[in-house]
Amino acid sequence: MIAALDRTPLSRSFFDRPVQEVAPELLGRLLVRTTEAGPVELRLTEVEAYAGPTDPGSHAYRGRTARNDVMFGPPGHVYVYFTYGMWHCVNLVCGRDGDPGAVLLRAGEVVRGAELARPRRPAARHDRELAKGPARLATALAIDRALDGADACGPPSAPLRILTGRPVPADQVRTGPRTGVAGEGGIRPWRYWQAEDRTVSPYRAHAPRRRPRT
Fold first, then answer.
1. How much is the pTM?
2. pLDDT averaged per 10 residues in sequence order, the chain, 214 residues
3. Contact (CB, 8 A) for 60 and 185
4. How far is it, in rounded angstroms, from Cα 101 to Cα 58?
């Protein structure tokens, strides 16, 4: 018998730890996105950890900016960034206030509200593809920069919350290099996923973007 998902909110103290500790423990947790249309709930199956000044792959590597300000704390808040001029990606801030770190939410299984997520992701051939990748996850859950800085440990009325769910057992957690990260940051095994879960996105090494010919 499969255990039910625990709907107890994760505490702020859960996030007030080094990002490498928090990231694998987010697998199996329940992300709840509520809009006027209703809630969409996602069981997390893939994440990536990003630290601060010691991590070349992190947005905080070169210090604090207007874009990455939320990464510097307090923990338990939402960091949303816009990439490639078209996609949003969502992270959960970890570590002590002032010590930047965040976990990128890369993929998950929609367990409630698929009827709301499907119109947002018309290219998805199956429900398991609704949130298979960080930009797809944000799109399926209608997450954009308006949620940057939101408190994921907030009250039930909050637009984005993280609940206990059903943590993935340690023997089912896999780890490897982060997707699409170049250089030294690309070899750190800070990507975590649930073994043999079909919602996990495929790994892709970093590929330099080619400039169009003129």
1. 0.93
2. 80 97 98 97 98 94 94 96 92 95 98 98 97 98 98 96 97 95 87 97 72 51
3. no
4. 8
